[in-house]
């Protein structure tokens, strides 16, 4: 929502941004001081003295890293919100296999030395990576007999004769899929995901992930500032009493007895419970540690992915770890956040393989969140006259839009269990397209900024 309010302000829209909370970022905030985290999770008492000063902590409620070459970094660069933020590279990415964790190779030398694969497997894997690097969806000469829109990823793995272990870490630690459904889908998307991973890795070398100093809460604040520069207004601590709809169209928002009038409204599912449907649950466990995670070479930050079939599940388990090096914890302390999609009636048991890697844990905070998706896409509620029923067709493609959206309420999706922002950026671009009637275009955004600010000064 903050990113969209920034982008819409740059686009010349008049934006009023109201938040019922007293802090920026809603569900994806960073909580400081530590005392507030204890309160939020209803833990008795206050943090022990061994945790240091409460105000040295900025704890993310939803852990996510940024892909160095990913969509969010591009949005930050194009909007120049990078001015307000400092990033550090995450030191390593690890994958779980047979009860142990292994570093995901980040260079050719590491790949050759890695005990994740045998010697001949390494050779085949290298051939596969070269193929992916050269692959260009606009140049059929790079396909080598693969049809990107028809050949399944399973067949591509077969073509390079890759074994199950390599398929596991390629699909889950490089392409970052949460389940194995992708194996039977056309390979183009997977190849592009592996490319994104490799290109992100090439930028800084240790891992493909970046993380902002002082926590993820800095991101919404940065975009709120962008909105303010372009005339947007932000109000925190603003209770929302009612969304006012007249003749099937949103006309305003009522707060503290007054109505702020509008033509379009963007909100998260918590503001419109009657217009969203529950699509699942995510469990997240925030753990405070006094030590780096074992077998990570004492990294002060890392990601660990536990592929689902290593622990007989349908979806992966993720661990994100950051520390005092990122100004989010007291000196010598580490924050590890484990998360996964809930599959059973005992979510805490499901996440145990991740927590076992983190022992001893000084304090943990467990949350189980419902995942919501909008039931309508900004059309009139419940019934969409879209040549069929509301929402998506069986294949997951959105039905063609026959006319503009009369209701003009655009609802974001809840944050999923992935540990990067790519799916969130897809949602942002999707909402943008439905609101503006055109694709989100990074270059056009840059031009609009230049129209207002003048060309960037020549260095």
Automatic annotation (TrEMBL):
Q: Which UniProt keywords apply?
A: Acetylation, Cytoplasm, Golgi apparatus, GTPase activation, Membrane, Phosphoprotein
**Family label:** Belongs to the Rab GDI family.
Q: How is this protein named in the record?
A: Rab GDP dissociation inhibitor
> How is the quaternary structure described?
Interacts with RHOH. Interacts with the GDP-bound inactive forms of RAB3A, RAB3B, RAB3C, RAB5A, RAB5B, RAB5C, RAB8A, RAB8B, RAB10, RAB12, RAB35, and RAB43; binds RAB3D to a lesser extent. Interacts with DZIP1; this interaction negatively regulates the interaction of GDI2 with GDP-bound RAB8A.
Query: Cellular component GO terms, alphabetically?
Result: Golgi apparatus; membrane
What single Pfam family name could you report for this chain, choosing any that match? GDI
* Known role: GDP-dissociation inhibitor preventing the GDP to GTP exchange of most Rab proteins. By keeping these small GTPases in their inactive GDP-bound form regulates intracellular membrane trafficking. Negatively regulates protein transport to the cilium and ciliogenesis through the inhibition of RAB8A. Regulates the GDP/GTP exchange reaction of most RAB proteins by inhibiting the dissociation of GDP from them, and the subsequent binding of GTP.
Where does this polypeptide localize?
A: Cytoplasm; Golgi apparatus, trans-Golgi network; Membrane
Superkingdom, taxonomy of origin: Eukaryota
PANTHER family per UniProt? RAB GDP DISSOCIATION INHIBITOR BETA, RAB GDP-DISSOCIATION INHIBITOR
Instruction: Output the InterPro entries linked to this UniProt entry.
Output: FAD/NAD-bd_sf, GDP_dissociation_inhibitor, RabGDI
Q: Which GO terms describe its biological process?
A: protein transport; small GTPase-mediated signal transduction; vesicle-mediated transport
Q: From what organism does this protein derive? A: Eudromia elegans
Topology in the lipid bilayer is annotated as:
Peripheral membrane protein
Q: A Gene Ontology molecular-function term? A: Rab GDP-dissociation inhibitor activity
